[in-house]
Amino acid sequence: MNKVAKQPASAYFIAKETERPEKRTLSVVVDNEPGVLARVIGLFSGRGYNIESLTVSETEHEKHLSRITIVTRGTPHVLEQIKAQLERIVPVHRVVDLTVMAHERGHEKPLERELALVKVSGKGDHRVEALRLADAFKATVIDANVEHFVFEVTGRTSKIEQFIATMAPLGLVEVCRTGVAAMGRGPEGM
Predict the structure, then answer these.
(1) Which has the closest alpha carbon to 28: 71, 63, 61?
(2) φ, ψ dihedrals at 20, nearest 5°
(3) pLDDT digits (tens, 9 = 90+) for 76-98
(4) How many CB atoms lie within 10 A of CB 38?
(5) Rounded to an integer, what is the distance from CA 149 to the centroid of its chain?
């Protein structure tokens, strides 16, 4: 009887047993052209990894460059593989793991902010309480009538999530979030 040793389908999925998934923020500078975002996202989905947050915008109009900020989770080995594969995509100019960069520069975390629009409907005491709590979170009223408010709130993801949870019992109707925008600390750029 021939015994054939089973080999893993891909070395990509081999990770040290001691490695645990970590949350990382990646910044990717790319050409602003059709299909680039799909190629970057395809790299994650093709390997079964989720993107927790994704933002993209043109940052240098004259050079037609965009910056994609991706928050994801994986083992350090897998994240290094993703970074290396991103760097090989032709329209990608630079890939920086902002989380690792922050640690290398002696900072705990990169600067990360998110914006959310939060619609709350309510009358009477709920309305007064929503306004009071919004003030505590430094949220701004950007639309209002006698039946609802739309608040704009910015901050770390944890602050946004806490604000949403606080507004839920007061008449939360709808939430729209931008995703994380991130930048390394200190005087150096990417």
Answers:
(1) 71
(2) -115, 150
(3) 888 898 999 999 988 999 999 99
(4) 10
(5) 26
Q: How far apart are CA 80 and CA 26, in angstroms?
A: 11
Residue type, 161: E
β-sheet bridge partners, residue 141: 151
Where residue 10 falls among pLDDT bands split at 50, 70, 90? very low
Instruction: Give the chain's domains with CATH numbers.
Output: 20-104 (3.30.70.260), 111-183 (3.30.70.1150)
Helices (H) and strands (E) in the chain, counts: 5, 9
Do the Cβ atoms of 51 and 73 come closer than 8 Å? no
- How far apart (Å, rounded) are the C-alpha atoms in residues 116 and 111? 17
